[in-house]
């Protein structure tokens, strides 16, 4: 099989990377199989052992064309983003790439003020706009607004259109470019994830430059976020940030049942009436399909089962938790050291309180800087941060395998703790933020920015070892030994 793949890799670069993936995977399997013959070695819950072999990379290629100047560009692109902070981030990222594809001048995007999150903040309130413009100066030209003299000379208001989600670059060249050339100003509305998942490498790397570098929060947001991180680190050498989506609206929308009896069914049912077009869902069916966010209690059980001890410090990033303290108590019982931004920065937080996006940005910073990031959901923030943390050196990121865990949670009382813990570990394999969990090109680019994750030369050395198994076993037994010791120490 390897020989076949190797041959194909002579012809296409793409297959070559698949081959690397396979061989790397094989090495890991061999590694694990030396431990108990069952590919089930424990992993270090705080840090991926393989992260050191990868680094983020998104430099411009050598033949990358310079940015088109405002004077030479094909026109001005106005963008209206949609959704909450993280959905808007994907929109801004794709807006930059679309401007590059069209040789357009990008006007600083407008943020959505009417989403569920209702926030009047503009781009300049959330993101450092000067940095955004200058960081991307070699990619595209960005201006704060369409020049006045231009606006005055326009006979009609700007042409407005809404492109389908995940459109190919050709769609923009065929459908948007002719209008841009004719009208000189085009406005794209409801703009979030509007470019295809797979683009050519230059454009994927541009996505990473925008998302991971050009979009920097404003100074007040950055400073408060960092000081909360410092306060956490002052108390604990390392901490887990847990992002809990457990607001009543969100739970009602999911159609799931969370064990709160008639009271919950009634309350969430009432909220659900707000949306007239929601389909009738079976709560059990949704749970089995892995569509339900974990309860705070379930998140706690998962983390404890994975091996985090009860003295671990947790930072909880969330909106208003449905059921409040009562819902949080079971998590607090499992992890007594729980902190939130409200607890760590009560006074300093006040100016931010009216702005949900700025609050979300502060949580984003703390979650990004945490040693371990865990979520109870698979929403936009979870995806965006999972991708970012891969790029930033595969910092441990734990996302629940809700489909498998749901069965396990419902059978929790039919087994002892050790059996439960072992099964949770097995369920979570492939959901721990390890470098090779996903094949390059699979998944959403924001979650797994494979074009912007490079391997250090040593990783290739390691891959080659697969052809010499005896030596491999000798090498890695040593490593595996110290690893499993680390785990045993960590869980006591
Ligand atoms: C954009 O400009 C480059 C040169 O910088 C040119 O090769 C390309 O064809 C232009 N594309 C469009 C859509 O104008
Ligand atoms: C952790 O659990 C142990 C018993 O297993 C208990 O003695 C200790 O007080 C707990 N620590 C915290 C911080 O609750
Ligand atoms: C040949 C080789 O790289 N062996 C390594 C196996 O792992 C141990 C423990 O980390 C290293 O000390 C060896 O150098």
Cα end-to-end separation: 43 Å
| Distinct bound molecules | 2-acetamido-2-deoxy-beta-D-glucopyranose
Measured by DSSP, the beta-strand proportion falls in 5-15%
* Residue runs with pLDDT of under 50 for 5 or more positions: 1-24, 29-39, 465-492
Radius of gyration: 24 Å
Structural class: alpha/beta
Biggest sheet character = 5 strands, parallel
How many extended strands?
12
What integer is the average pLDDT?
A: 87
Output the number of helix runs.
Answer: 22
> What share of residues is helical?
40-55%
Principal-axis shape: globular
- Please list the strands of the largest sheet in the order they lie side by side: 4-3-2-6-5
Organism: Cajanus cajan (Pigeon pea)
InterPro entries: FucosylTrfase_pln (IPR024709), GDP-Fuc_O-FucTrfase (IPR019378)
Pfam families: O-FucT
Keywords: Carbohydrate metabolism, Fucose metabolism, Glycosyltransferase, Signal, Transferase
Short description:
This protein has 492 residues and is of the alpha/beta class. It contains 22 helices and 12 strands.
Polypeptide structure, described:
- With about 500 residues, the protein is α/β, with parallel strands linked by helices.
- It has a domain at about 75-220.
- About 50% of the residues lie in helices and about 10% in strands.
- It is built from 22 helices and twelve strands.
- It has helices spanning about 1-10, 15-35, 85-100, 125, 130-135, 150-155, 170-185, 200-215, 220-235, 250-255, 260-270, 285-290, 295-305, 325-335, 340-345, 345-350, 355-370, 380-390, 400-410, 415-430, 455-465, 470-490, and strands spanning about 55, 75-80, 105, 140-145, 160, 185-190, 240-245, 315-320, 340, 370-375, 395-400, 455.
- A five-stranded parallel sheet has the order 4-3-2-6-5.
- Strand 5 (about 160), helix 7 (about 170-185) and strand 6 form a beta-alpha-beta unit.
- It is globular.
- Residues about 1-25, about 30-40 and about 465-490 have low confidence and may be disordered.
- One 2-acetamido-2-deoxy-beta-D-glucopyranose (NAG) binds near residues 310, 311 and 336.
- One 2-acetamido-2-deoxy-beta-D-glucopyranose (NAG) binds near residues 68, 74, 102 and 177.
- One of its GO terms (molecular function) is glycosyltransferase activity.
- This is O-fucosyltransferase family protein.
- InterPro entries: FucosylTrfase_pln, GDP-Fuc_O-FucTrfase.
């Amino acid at each position: 099989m390897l020989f076949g793949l190797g041959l194909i890799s002579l012809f296409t670069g793409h297959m070559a990377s698949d081959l690397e993936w396979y061989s790397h995977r094989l090495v890991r399997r061999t590694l694990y199989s030396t431990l108990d013959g069952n590919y089930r070695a424990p992993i270090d819950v705080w840090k991926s052992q393989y992260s050191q072999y990868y680094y983020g990379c998104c430099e411009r290629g050598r033949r990358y064309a310079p940015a088109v100047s405002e004077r030479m560009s094909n026109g001005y692109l106005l963008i209206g983003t949609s959704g909450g902070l993280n959905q808007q981030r994907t929109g801004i990222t794709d807006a930059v790439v679309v401007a590059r594809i069209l040789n357009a001048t990008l006007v600083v995007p407008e943020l959505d003020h009417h989403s569920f999150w209702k926030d009047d903040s503009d781009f300049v309130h959330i993101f450092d706009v000067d940095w955004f413009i200058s960081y991307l100066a070699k990619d595209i030209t960005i201006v704060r607004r369409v020049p006045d003299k231009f606006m005055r000379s326009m006979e009609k208001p700007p042409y407005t259109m809404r492109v389908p989600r995940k459109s190919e670059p050709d769609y923009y060249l065929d459908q948007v470019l002719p209008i841009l050339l004719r009208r000189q100003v085009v406005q794209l509305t409801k703009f979030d994830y509007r470019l295809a998942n797979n683009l050519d490498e230059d454009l994927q790397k541009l996505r990473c430059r925008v998302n991971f570098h050009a979009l920097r929060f404003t100074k007040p947001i950055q400073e408060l976020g960092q000081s909360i991180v410092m306060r956490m680190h002052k108390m604990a050498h390392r901490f887990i940030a847990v992002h809990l989506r457990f607001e009543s609206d969100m739970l009602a929308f999911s159609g799931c049942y969370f064990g709160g009896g008639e009271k919950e069914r009634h309350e969430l049912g009432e909220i659900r009436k707000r949306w007239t077009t929601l389909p009738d869902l079976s709560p059990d069916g949704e749970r089995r399909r892995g569509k339900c966010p974990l309860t705070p209690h379930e998140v706690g059980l998962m983390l404890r089962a994975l091996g985090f001890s009860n003295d671990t410090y947790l930072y909880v990033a969330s909106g208003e938790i449905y059921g409040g303290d009562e819902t949080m108590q079971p998590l607090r019982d499992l992890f007594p050291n729980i902190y939130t931004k409200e607890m760590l920065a009560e006074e300093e937080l006040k100016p931010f309180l009216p702005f949900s996006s700025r609050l979300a940005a502060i949580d984003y910073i703390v979650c990004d800087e945490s040693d371990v990031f865990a979520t109870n959901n698979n929403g936009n923030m979870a995806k965006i941060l999972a991708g970012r943390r891969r790029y930033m050196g595969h910092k441990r990121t734990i996302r629940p395998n809700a489909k498998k865990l749901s069965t396990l949670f419902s059978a929790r009382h039919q087994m002892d703790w050790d059996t439960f813990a072992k099964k949770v570990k097995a369920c979570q394999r492939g959901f721990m933020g390890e470098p090779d969990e996903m094949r390059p090109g699979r998944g959403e680019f924001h979650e797994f920015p494979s074009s912007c994750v490079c391997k250090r030369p040593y990783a290739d050395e390691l891959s080659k070892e697969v052809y010499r198994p005896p030596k491999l076993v000798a090498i890695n037994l040593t490593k595996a030994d110290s690893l499993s010791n680390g785990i045993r120490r960590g869980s006591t």
